[in-house]
Amino acid sequence: MKRLITVAGLMFASSAAVAGSLGDVSDVPATDVKSEKELSGFLGLGALWRPEYIGGDTTETKPVPLISVDYRDIVYFKLNRLGVWFWKQGQEGFRIGAVAQPRRGWRRNDGNRLSGMDTRGDSVELGVNLAWRYDRFEAEGGYLTDVSDESDGDSAYIKLRYALMQSSTWNLAGQLGFEYLDDDVTDYYFGVPADEATPIRPAYSPDEEWNTSVSLVATYIINPSWLAMGGFSYTVLGDELQDSPIVEEDDYANVFAGVAWRF
User: Fold this and answer.
1) Widest CA span of the chain, in angstroms?
2) Which residue, 173, 175, 192, 183, is CA-closest to 234?
3) Any idea where the domains of the chain sit in the sequence?
């Protein structure tokens, strides 16, 4: 129990850094490192390459904590998601739970098109999720709402994940994802209110929209105590977001890599 409390403290102490760093890597599938222990996972550090803001045409590289904690396949934190399974059929089959994850915002100095606009803060979204697992395949869907008083909007997702490789040293998984954003979320993060409009940045209020992503994550077990991992996601923004005057690129990628200590 003491070990669980210690790991939980480290996990939540890092939540702000995760929200600002891996908050836009929710499209990357969580890596599975099998363990027979009740409490297992890894703690590490990596580097993340990403756009300065979603829709921007400049990139940045940032240090990022790599955290995965699983307690008896009930409570988990994987890269950027905190969740709990309330009911499950077993390792395979259906399961129902709750999940919380961050959504990355932006600051006016993140890009020229944002100059003079108010900050759009990082938000925390909380909701329910349903998953179905069979062999190497997993399908998951969820519905979330902003609980941090930022966008005050709702979102949903569908993720189709397949383990392409599973061995004693290598794990490789791919994922196809679809994300729904209601008009409160799209307007907050991609809209331009009248009081922030300029002659070259007209007022804009997008409707609800879907984004599509593909992603890949790999882990390599170096030894019983250490692993290396890396992944990427590629996302295409929906038409309503592409039409925003603050969006410079219709798609974007995130890439990360690092090493971690296993426990």
Assistant:
1) 61
2) 175
3) 2-262
Q: Which residues contact 164 (CB under 8 A, 6 or more apart)?
A: 136, 172, 173, 174
The structure tokens listed for 260 are 């971690």
Pair 69, 39: CB distance under 8 Å: yes
Its pTM stands at: 0.88
Assess contact for 159 and 177: CB atoms under 8 A: yes
Q: Could you tell me the sign of the dihedral formed by the alpha carbons of 71, 82, 90, 212, in that order?
A: negative
Measured CA to CA, the distance from residue 102 to residue 26 in angstroms comes to 8
What length does the chain have? 263
Query: Residue 219: is it exposed, middle or buried by C-beta count within 10 angstroms (0-12/13-18/19+)?
Result: buried
Instruction: Report residue 208: phi and psi, to 5°.
Output: -60, 155
The fold of the 2-262 domain, in CATH, is: Porin (2.40.160)
For the CA atoms of the chain, what is the radius of gyration? 19
Extract the tokens encoding 12.
């939540």
Residue 248 Rama label (left phi>0; alpha psi -120 to 50; beta): alpha
pLDDT tens string 98-154: 999 999 999 999 999 999 999 999 999 999 999 999 999 999 999 999 999 999 999
**The one-letter amino acid at 148:** S
